[in-house]
Amino acid sequence: MNHQPRVVLITGASQGLGRELARLLARRGDRLVLTARGATALAAVADELAAITEVVALPGDVADRAHADRLVRTGQERFGRIDVLVNNASALGPSPMPPLADYPLDAFAAVLRTNVVAPLHLIQLVLPGMRAHGAGVILNVTSDAGVQAYAGWGGYGTSKAALEHLSRVLAAELADSGVRVYVVDPGDMNTQMHRDAEPGVDLSHLPGPEIVAPAIADLLERETAPFGRFEAQALLPLGC
Q1: For residue 96, cis peptide bond before it (omega within 30 degrees of 0)
Q2: Whose CA is closest to 45, among 24, 29, 23?
Q3: Residue 189 class from Cβ within 10 Å (0-12 exposed, 13-18 middle, 19+ buried)?
Q4: 150 given a catalytic annotation
Q5: Confidence at residue 240, expressed as pLDDT on a 0 to 100 scale
Q6: Which CATH class, in words, describes the domain spanning 7-235?
Q7: In the chain, what are the domain boundaries?
Q8: Higher pLDDT, 123 or 225
C-alpha cells in the first residue's frame, strides 16, 4: 500500500482504540495531534510515539470549546494543516448505566456534549483547511448501540445515533468538496469503557483495540465514496 503521510488529529488518544490507532499511524509515518483527558497517560503515549514521528499532545476535555480551539490551532501552527480528524473520544455516562426513565438529565446532557456537540465543533474547526486543500477525512467512531435498541444503553446509544445522522447530513453538505466522512463501528472490544459499561462481565473473549485498529488505519488509505458506514471488525482479514 502506497501510504502518503498525513497530519491526523485523534481524540481520546491516551488509551484503548485511540492509542492503538495512534501507534499504528505513527509507524506508517503520519504526524499526530493527540488529545485526551488523562494528562499522564497521554504524555506516556506522546513520549512513546515521539521516537517514531512528530507528535503534538495537548491534554484536555474535547467538550471544552477553548481546549478544542487551542488543539486545532496548535496542530495547524505546527504542521500547517489537519488532513484527518478522528473523533474517537466518547463519554459513557453513569456506570452502571441507568434506564432512560431514571437517567439524570445533567448526565444525559454531558454525554451529548462529549459525543455529539464536541465532534461537531472539531469538525467546524478543521473544515476550512480541508476545503481549502480540496481533501480531508472526518472519521466519527460510533457503536451498534446507535443503531440497535439495547436496554440500559439509552444515553450512550442516543448520542451515537445522533452522531451518525450528523455524519450523513455533513456528507451530503460536503458533496464534491473532496472531504470524505466515515462512520466506523469498531464492534465489541475488551476495553476499559466496555468494562465500565458492563461491570463484572467477563470480556476476555473479545478482541482488544490493537486487533481492530489496523482495519481503521487501512480505511483511511482508501479513496472511497464521500460517505460510508463501516463495521471495522468486518474489514479485518479472516482469522484476526
Answers
A1: yes
A2: 23
A3: buried
A4: no
A5: 52
A6: alpha beta
A7: 7-235
A8: 123
